[in-house]
Amino acid sequence: MPRDNAREHRLLILAGLASVFTALILIAAKAIAWLMTGSVSLLASLVDSVMDSLASLINFFAIRYSLVPADEEHRFGHGKAEALAGLGQAIFIAASSVFLIYQSILKLMEPKPIEENAVGVAVMVFSIAMTFGLLLIQKYVVRQTGSTAIEADSLHYLSDLAVNVGIILVLVVSQFGYLWLDGVVGLVIAVFILFSAWHIASESVQLLLDREIPGDVREVISAIVADHPQALGFHDLRTRQSGRTQFIQLHVDMDQNLTLLKSHDLASRIETRIQDAFPMADVIIHQDPVAVGSKVTLDDRPPA
Length: 304
Hints:
The protein has helices spanning 5-37, 40-66, 81-109, 117-145, 148-173, 180-208, 217-226, 260-277; strands spanning 231-242, 245-255, 281-290. By secondary structure, the protein is mainly α.
């Protein structure tokens, strides 16, 4: 089924704008709640939202840049801008976690009662509703486009749901004299954010280093080639991903007596089947002539 690039572009822009506006609204609400309550857990959530807004802005501009068509200087397109955006997000998120660790330790050393708990709880419930709505949009866009930048942004907002529930717990329990819990939860949130930063950074770096596409790609391609009797085998299978586009390259062994037209037709049929299995793929097949008497087995493993 052909890709509707114009629709994908609109979805990506929509997801980017939704993320930015959600972060800005939550910053305003949480800032008011923190000033009224003095809770370090709320401060942690506020700082997290500030980092979200910066990361979302980076994401938005990176997505727009990644959608620029290939040009003379970037023959493979600009898809890796999304991985760079993910790396930028990770740096911002890690920096916010360090600040929160410091604030949480101060709160543990000098615990203070939390004021206006009801306001804090109301803001957290509002935050959960806003975040959940954004996640629904992002998950839909990721399913439709396979965007790594939106997926990284979605992962962070997903962690926010757990964080917000924890803060509500702190605001309620602190009324019974457990003042130390505010600092502990703030510290847990900071560590959780740091872990998210590591995950996003690791995934982004792997994409920039052209890691193989994860999953059963090799098994699927092996089965597709095996379905074509005139294909005597394949080797040198290489895969990578840049933004939403997957690149798949392989050599297919064919009878050296096949005409150029027939070998080209065989390669085209295999290419079409691979693109049906991986709609986001840009497939390149090199045709290798071999003697029929030296028929090889289907083996895509690189030589030792």
